[in-house]
Design a protein that fits this description.
Layout lengths: L15 H10 L4 H24 L2 H23 L9 H17 L8
Helix pairs in contact: 1-4, 2-3, 2-4
Pfam families: Mpo1-like
InterPro entries: Mpo1-like
Keywords: Membrane, Transmembrane, Transmembrane helix
């Protein structure tokens, strides 16, 4: 009889660089990348607006726009699960890294 009660341990990432390589494999779809870029752009704008206008509603919108666009991209276009809950820091940092890499031309919306 085979024991199927064991659980496979998820990979543990020791550095952001190591995680970012995994992150890029989970973000191959052009629309998903565009939605992530849009979400991070709006997140930054909401943060700036909340500081400039001292408006708590802009601040409260940060998680909605930050996660909302990304999760739509994963659910409907990439067809995988976001790693936000397993790796919250690495995932958010990688969102900003991809955002910066796209702006700097090191990555593009379209892969391959």
């Amino acid at each position: 009889m085979i024991n199927n009660n064991h659980k496979i341990q998820p990979k543990k990432y020791n550095s952001l660089k190591e995680f970012y390589y995994f992150y890029l494999t989970e973000h191959q779809n052009t629309i998903n990348r565009a939605l992530h870029f849009t979400g991070i752009s709006l997140l930054c704008l909401c943060f700036i607006a909340s500081v400039l206008f001292h408006n708590v509603y802009f601040f409260m919108a940060i998680p909605l726009v930050g996660f909302g666009f990304s999760w739509i991209g994963h659910q409907f276009f990439e067809r995988n699960k976001p790693s936000t809950l397993k790796y919250p820091f690495f995932s958010l940092a990688s969102d900003f890294l991809l955002f910066g890499d796209i702006i700097m031309g090191r990555q593009s919306f379209k892969t391959k």
